[in-house]
Write a structure and sequence with these properties.
alpha/beta, TIM Barrel, 12 helices, 298 residues, globular, 45% helix, eight-stranded parallel barrel
Length: 298
């Protein structure tokens, strides 16, 4: 068993000085012009996306403690896309970054166990993954078992950043408890299991809590004191550093904020016009890290 993921993540954040990660969400049509070819087919598009993704990882490595590749953008290219996803994971590891695989798998029993083995187990797999826990504890437990055995991490969807998430997650029972609050209690209980709490008091079982719902995040922080929050929604989705700060504890720990499009496509932003795209990515990543650092008060 390796070091608990929660401690590894907190150590990585301390080394880089900012609790942020960059999402790797490559879309061919949004790549810098130098990667595009009007006649490109599937393989050529994937090759371009992989080269771009690896370049992004190298650009942000001096600044951020972790990356979060979204597997869907790679899976669309079938077998070669999955191989490319693992190339990104491997390169990030070589550069000393932690990797959160954004896979959002969800099932029960032996199928959940197979997903856990496929996406989380082994030295070539990410350090942590995202999981949709709304099928219940038996859909989460196989991932938890891998986390305990291999020092890996897990982020369970609790309050997502998308607007329509409220249509489901705000549903309340007769006592007024909302569904996302009930899910938070479940995650807190699961995350307190034997061998899951790290030396610094956080569990390797964390939660996804969208920055677009700061009031809810404050409530969820009360319900999940031992969970590290993975916080999407900054930048392109409209959340600010102040919104993100709601997910942190007063000492500035307990969360890691993700930005994807606002960083990796920085070459399309007016303030970075004229820069080579890797420079634009690096400057955007630094601005993101600095903004979150100020917002959290670090």
């Amino acid at each position: 068993m390796g070091q608990n993921f929660a401690d590894r993540l907190l150590d990585a954040i301390a080394r880089k000085g900012s609790p942020v990660c960059v999402g790797i969400d490559p879309v061919y049509s949004r790549l810098p012009d130098e990667f595009k070819n009007d006649l490109a087919g599937g393989d050529e598009c994937l090759d371009a996306m992989l080269e771009f993704s690896l370049g992004v990882v190298e650009a942000v490595a001096p600044i951020v403690p972790a990356i979060k590749p979204q597997s869907a953008y790679f899976e669309v290219y079938r077998q070669r896309g999955v191989a490319a996803y693992y190339q990104v994971v491997r390169r990030a590891r070589e550069l000393g970054l932690l990797v959160i695989g954004d896979v959002k798998r969800n099932d029960i029993g032996s199928t959940a166990a197979a997903y856990a083995q496929a996406h989380l187990s082994g030295p070539d797999a990410p350090d942590a993954v995202t999981v949709n826990g709304y099928l219940g504890a038996d859909g989460i437990q196989p991932f938890v078992d891998v986390c305990r055995a291999e020092g890996k991490g897990l982020f369970v969807l609790v309050r997502t950043s998308n607007p329509s998430g409220a249509d489901i997650q705000d549903f309340a029972d007769a006592n007024g408890t909302k569904l996302y609050e009930h899910m938070a209690s479940q995650v807190s209980t699961i995350g307190a299991g034997e061998g899951l709490i790290a030396q610094r008091g956080y569990s390797c079982v964390g939660a996804v809590v969208g920055a677009t719902w700061p009031d809810e995040a404050r409530r969820l922080r009360e319900l999940m004191p031992e969970q590290i929050f993975l916080v999407p929604g900054y930048g392109a989705q409209g959340a600010t550093a102040a919104d993100c700060a709601a997910s942190f504890k007063p000492d500035g720990t307990g969360a890691i904020v993700n930005a994807s499009r606002s960083v990796i496509y920085a070459h399309q932003r007016e303030e970075y016009a004229g820069l080579a795209w890797p420079q634009a990515v690096q400057k955007a990543a630094q601005a993101f890290a600095d903004d979150i650092r100020r917002g959290v008060g670090l």
